[in-house]
Amino acid sequence: MAKRRKPSRKRSPRRHSRRRQYPYEDWPAFKPVPTTEGCLWELDLDELTPKQRAEWDRVEAERERSRKLHERFAKKMAHRAAVRDGLLPPPWLCETQGLPAPEAQETPVRRITAKNWITVEAQRLKRLDKIPAGISKTDFAKMLAGNLKAAAVGDPSISVHSGSWKYIRNNLSDWGVWPIRVIE
Description:
This protein folds into two domains: 27-107, no CATH class; 114-182. The protein has helices at 50-84, 91-97, 114-127, 137-154, 165-175, and strands at residues 30-35, 38-43. A hairpin with a 2-residue loop joins β1 and β2. The relative contact order is 0.07. The radius of gyration is 29 Å and the shape is extended. The protein has five helices and two strands. Strands 1-2 form a two-stranded antiparallel sheet. The chain starts with 29 loop residues before the first strand and ends in a 9-residue tail after the last helix.
């Protein structure tokens, strides 16, 4: 049987030699700004590398999503507390007694499907004579897909889940926007 070695007294070096207070403290764009209340940190977004900018945008998007989740949860809990404290009638009572339902917690979000948007966009393009003569079905679908993606950037109510040009090309006839002459 082999002899076991005694562990040495030397300790392995610490993994983190210094505690970082901020996750992006080692970025050159992250600079201390002295104030009367102490030292604040400022991130200059123009000095970030593309990789750092992508990571920062991902973190900001996650922070925004988390904030919205917390707001929605707080609103739901406030509504439940109001029902518990008797300030609002419970939902089951409204249905059985014919009472007016309490105000909706959120107004429903208007959603525009890709099909509806594309048919309206095709009608608009034809009305403005922006459709080139002799355009192929594929090119027309690519043009509509590009317009759909550009419009969805500014308007979050537009659904672009099914907005690929191939999907659009395959359904143009079903939606009544191909051939071009049949568009109303």
